[in-house]
Amino acid sequence: MRIGPEPLGRLWFVEGRGDRPKEKIKHRTSKFVLASRNAVTITEMNILTTPTPTTSETVTIAVTEIMGHNLCIANVDGQKVCEAIAGALRSGKRVIVSFKDGEDITSAFLADAIGHLYALFPEDFLEANLRAIDMEPDDAADLLDTIEDVKEYLQDPKAWEAAARATFGDDYYE
């Protein structure tokens, strides 16, 4: 199952993936609500909502092509994807990141592939120039949660490090 990119007002159709039919989705995050049958209701802009218009200034990056396989697990693969996206953004392109055929997408992978971009580029720039497509609803929710965590971390890294030390011990960052 994947989200959009077929907008109809504020609704996005959830399409079947493979032999799976459209189904009712129900999930809440701070950024959006997936709630109605065969549709996704978007309540706030994010990289999953408004599609980037396809122009000569738009490039689609297929995650599985960058990695050479379909398992979206390892940090090193996320870093490869991040480098490809960052290079395209630096060259003035708008980027659509396709997760088509990606399997077992982890938060660690998403943090390195997409989240790290928030340390490299301003949030407004990414909101205007970056889109993610072809994701399962659960993976899309994980992506949005990961982005929120990265943005919170970037606002006060020392507080996050202190919390990690308090939880895991002083040796955690050594």
What does this structure look like?
The protein has a three-stranded antiparallel sheet with strand order 1-2-5, with no helix packed on it. A three-stranded parallel sheet has the order 6-7-8. The termini are far apart. It has a domain at 48-167. The model is unreliable at 1-45 (pLDDT under 50). The chain has helices at residues 63-67, 75-90, 107-115, 117-120, 123-129, 137-155, 157-168, and strands spanning 2-8, 11-15, 27-28, 33-34, 39-41, 58-62, 94-98, 130-133. The chain has 174 residues and is of the alpha/beta class. The relative contact order is 0.15. The protein is built from seven helices and eight strands, in the order E-E-E-E-E-E-H-H-E-H-H-H-E-H-H.
List keywords for this structure.
7 helices, alpha/beta, 19% strand, three-stranded antiparallel β-sheet, three-stranded parallel β-sheet, 174 residues, single chain, disordered N terminus
Topology:
Elements: E1 2-8, E2 11-15, E3 27-28, E4 33-34, E5 39-41, E6 58-62, H1 63-67, H2 75-90, E7 94-98, H3 107-115, H4 117-120, H5 123-129, E8 130-133, H6 137-155, H7 157-168
Helix pairs in contact: 2-3, 3-6, 6-7
From the alpha-carbon coordinates, what is the Rg to the nearest angstrom? 17 Å
What is the CA-CA span between the terminal residues? 41 Å
What's the average pLDDT? Answer: 76
Number of helices: 7
Main β-sheet, in a few words?
Answer: 3 strands, antiparallel
Percent helix range:
40-55%
- Low-pLDDT segments: 1-45
- Beta-strand content bin: 15-25%
Instruction: Give, in spatial order, the strands making up the sheet with the most strands.
Output: 1-2-5
- The overall strand count is 8
> How does the overall form come out from the CA principal axes?
globular
Which structural category fits the helices and strands?
Answer: alpha/beta
Order of helices and strands: EEEEEEHHEHHHEHH
